[in-house]
Known about the structure:
Blueprint: H1 3-48, H2 88-91, E1 116-120, H3 146-158, H4 184-187, H5 193-207, H6 214-226, H7 231-248, H8 253-267, E2 291-296, H9 303-316, E3 321-326, H10 331-344, E4 347-351, H11 357-371, E5 375-380, H12 388-404, E6 409-415, H13 420-433, E7 437-441, H14 451-459, E8 463-467, E9 475-477, H15 480-488
Parallel strand pairs: 2-5, 2-6, 3-4, 3-5, 6-7, 7-8
Antiparallel strand pairs: 1-4, 8-9
Helix pairs in contact: 3-12, 5-6, 5-15, 6-7, 7-8, 8-15, 9-10, 11-12, 12-13, 13-14
Bound molecules: guanosine-5'-triphosphate.
Guanosine-5'-triphosphate (GTP) is lined by residues 83-84, 86, 94, 297, 299-305, 327, 330, 333, 381-382, 441-442, 444-445, 467-470, 474.
Amino acid sequence: MTTSTVIVIVVVVVVVLAVAVVAGLALNRRRRISLGERDEAQQEDAVKGYRAGGGISLSSGGGATTAAPPEHPVGERTEVEGQPGVGDDAAVPRDSERRGIVDVPLPDGQGSTATAEPVERPGTEAPGTEAPDTAAPETEQAPAEEDRVAEEVPAQRAEPAPEPEPAEPEGVEEIEQIEPTAGRLERLRGRLSRSRSTLGQGLLGLLGAGDLDEDSWEEIEDTLLMADLGAATTTEITERLRTEIASRGVRTADDARALLREVLVDALGPDMERSVRALPHGDPANGGKPAVVLVVGVNGTGKTTTTGKLARVLVADGRTVLLGAADTFRAAAVEQLATWGERVGAEVVRGKEAADPASVAFEAVDRGGETGVDAVLVDTAGRLHTKTGLMDELGKVKRVVDKRAQVDEVLLVLDATTGQNGLTQARVFSDVVDVTGIVLTKLDGTAKGGIVFQVQRELGVPVKLVGLGEGPDDLAPFEPGAFVDALLD
Length: 489
Ligand SMILES: Nc1nc2c(ncn2[C@@H]2O[C@H](COP(=O)(O)OP(=O)(O)OP(=O)(O)O)[C@@H](O)[C@H]2O)c(=O)[nH]1
């Protein structure tokens, strides 16, 4: 072997070694970056207050799949008649552990898939009868792409799909008499009797009794805590009462009432903006856009009922409404909403059972724009805030609608009888869909009306409406003064 051959061999070996070292370093670095990214994602989940990957069945994200969608778990649901009682279904969630996400494809540009079923017209069909499907036919499942939905549905619409006849809802003449919305809280104040006797009367009794020793102050605190005002609000109210009593004194029962009223009303943030943003942008008859309201919450809190009641409020105000039945998990909810629609002459866009709720919501908003209604109210399926997959699904509903129209109001419906749990729910829902207003239902069934104070304080989101019964007009605007009066009188 010549010297030059040896040199060549040495050079080759050195080069090979150098390449190996560089490649090894690069690989090592890449691994570290990908770990870092995952850590970040996990942190984000932790901030949102729930953890990802908790046994939720998700469909494959990459490429088209021919796998059949998971069987819809309607049969697993514990409620069978669609009429849960006050507070009971919060304890027995209707989406069981085994419930998976039903990822039904959204409409795409080839007209391959559509899941929403427009359009049921009041007066033309009995509730439960399916409206003719004007959307393109269903095909194999493809991954649902939010962006694609927003961009391609217009293209799909360019295809001559059989459009439903634009017609005036025939049920209009049969619209029920709707209670005037003004003064409802006063009219329904008797429904707060349970909270009144424990919170209002309890506090008045203690404050009006004269000299207050430490035991009395403890009792005041207990009364506030028992009514679900929460520790922070309780401390704040007690301290304010102490200060005011020390500075101005309370001699009569009237003094006690006046002071208590002032302190409680102040704690309810009387200046918060409580109007429900359900009025259209411009004149829908002349190119204006309908308002879009999304109604969200856990199972059985009263979302469908509230959507129906709110439709009545709007109709009573001379507005036209379209209802989107995006609660595709519970067949009874769709029927329920259809009945509410019929009663006020509102069109209902419904999805097939197990349809993707985002698709139904999208169709509803689209249809509302076409027909020029003032407001589109979208009822979503109840979901446990602890199920990451379900919350993601809700986030998707909002994002898909956002691409089509501005979502003006996201109303979180909370069942007042569930107390602290409602607060946890509120936090998670707020993280996922930017809640803009709270509807506190079933206040008629609880002595814990104090949850109103807590939920606003914790979230900084106003309670806009309160549910005070199962009747169609038992939905009242929340007014701090009238509410406190109902507790104290
Ligand atoms: N007492 C009382 N009952 C109410 C109120 N609001 C709703 N309900 C009742 O609560 C029950 C559940 O209401 P729904 O509207 O079906 O609840 P939901 O949130 O749509 O249920 P899911 O779609 O399954 O999540 C029904 O029996 C309603 O009549 C209220 O303010 N007071």
